[in-house]
Write a structure and sequence with these properties.
The chain has 244 residues and is an alpha/beta fold. It has one domain (2-233): TIM Barrel (Alpha-Beta Barrel), CATH 3.20.20.370. Helices cover 41% and strands 16% of the residues. It contains eight helices and nine strands. The strands form two sheets. The protein has a seven-stranded parallel beta barrel, surrounded by six helices. Strands 7-8 form a two-stranded antiparallel ribbon. The protein is globular, with a radius of gyration of 17 Å. The mean pLDDT is 93.
Length: 244
């Protein structure tokens, strides 16, 4: 089990560095919804220093890439190619390859609403060399498309987001969208470890077959949340002093 974090989204360099001490994989904003040359370079260097799995986190420009995103197949491919290529250039300077792609915000949810878009994203990842894995919601359109395309898929849960009974996320801005604080995160993870599921926003139990848990850098207290989650899951990185 592992933790991942979306980085290069306007957080301070100190927070970027701190979060890299607790996670196994990072998803780096690459100039769409956020991210610039400085933040991409910083994240790549930290990934190399910590031995992290380095991934691209492409998103739609405007409104931080959130909300109801509308994009067609050609637009999605163009977005992926342009943004992921930017991060690949920074990775090459540090002698690193990209490991995976995790779509951001509205794109993340757009491929779950549209099996055709999910297929486009998965097949695009499968055409890359080296092969890029996809990170996304478990049991959804993208996972099915990735399996059909022979693309590795990493099912993801969210430490800090509310869930609906069907396993989808509560949209930001609605009641229960965010799960705040270390104590709530630890309770969620302990229940998941015990039962394989979590509590949805209405109190029902939802099964989550995940291999990685995400903490967002802009969640209040994200560094403390990441540390508490790593300790709860037993994936605390070796050699860390545990400072938060």
């Amino acid at each position: 089990m592992e933790l991942n974090c979306d980085l290069g989204e306007g957080e301070s360099p100190a927070l970027t560095s701190g979060l890299c001490s607790w996670v196994r994989r990072i998803n780096v904003a690459c100039g769409g919804h956020a991210g610039d040359a400085d933040s991409m370079g910083r994240c790549v260097r930290l990934a190399r220093e910590h031995g992290l799995l380095l991934g691209a986190h492409p998103g739609m420009p405007g409104a931080f890439g959130r909300g109801d995103v509308r994009v067609d197949a050609s637009g999605l491919v163009q977005l992926l190619e342009s943004q992921v290529f930017r991060l690949e250039l920074h990775a090459a300077k540090e002698g690193m390859d990209l490991h995976h792609v995790k779509l951001h915000g509205g794109l993340y949810h757009a491929v779950e609403r549209d099996p055709g878009l999910a297929r486009v994203a998965a097949e695009w990842a499968g055409r890359n060399e080296p092969l890029l894995a996809m990170v996304g919601l478990p049991g959804g359109c993208l996972q099915a498309a990735a399996h059909a395309a022979g693309v590795p898929f990493v099912p993801e849960g969210f430490l800090d987001r509310g869930y609906r009974p069907d396993g989808s996320l509560v949209p930001r801005g609605e009641p229960g969208a965010m799960l705040g604080g270390e104590a709530a995160v630890v309770r969620r993870l302990n229940r998941w470890l015990d039962t394989g599921g979590i509590e949805a926003v209405d109190g029902t139990w939802v099964r989550l077959d995940v291999r990685t848990w995400c903490v967002h850098s802009d969640t209040p207290g994200s560094l403390a949340v990441a540390a508490a989650a790593a300790r709860t899951l037993g994936c605390e990185p070796m050699g860390r002093e545990g400072k938060v």
